[in-house]
Amino acid sequence: MYKILTKKEYQLLLFLEASASEKGGRVDEMQLNSWDFDTLKEWDKTGFIQYGLIKQAPFGNYEVRYYDSYVILSDEAFELAYAERKRRALAFAENRIWEKKTN
User: Fold this and answer.
1) Is 3 helix (H, G, I), strand (E, B) or coil?
2) Model-level pTM?
3) Which residues of 69-95 are buried (b: 16+ CB within 10 A; e: fewer)?
4) pLDDT given at position 93
5) Is residue 60 part of a domain?
């Protein structure tokens, strides 16, 4: 469905993939802007991702206030995120400014 994304959409997807894989699906909304929120809602409607609010922890749990929403990526979203990470890694490797140390 989403075979081609814009650069901006890939950036958002990689942010969401990191949230899913490194933060248990919690999304730091402080890092998002209005375009991001609109895109999240669109992707949620199409099933590309699942996005919504999480149940709040009891008052006083400071960590949750920055993570008040969640994301679950579809298989397609994970595949596109992986392909983009690999593409970026290979592009950086071609243009790196350092050399491997040899013995």
Assistant:
1) coil
2) 0.81
3) bbbebbeebeebbeebeeeeeeeeeee
4) 83
5) yes
- Token pair recorded at residue 96: 């790196």
Residue 64 is part of a domain; what is its CATH number? 1.10.10
Range of the domain at 24: 7-91
In our burial notation (b when 16+ CB lie closer than 10 A, e otherwise), range 9-46 reads: bbebbbbbbebbeeeebbbeeeebeeebeebbeebeee
- Residue range 20-38, pLDDT digits in tens: 999 999 998 889 999 999 9
Confidence of residue 1 (pLDDT cuts 50, 70, 90): low
- Is beta strand 49-53 parallel, antiparallel or unpaired with respect to 26-27? unpaired
pLDDT of 57: 57
Count of the separate structural domains present in the chain: 1
**C-alpha to C-alpha distance for 19 and 56, rounded to whole angstroms:** 18
Percent of the chain with pLDDT over 70: 85
Contacts of 48 (CB under 8 A, 6+ apart): 1, 2, 74, 76, 77
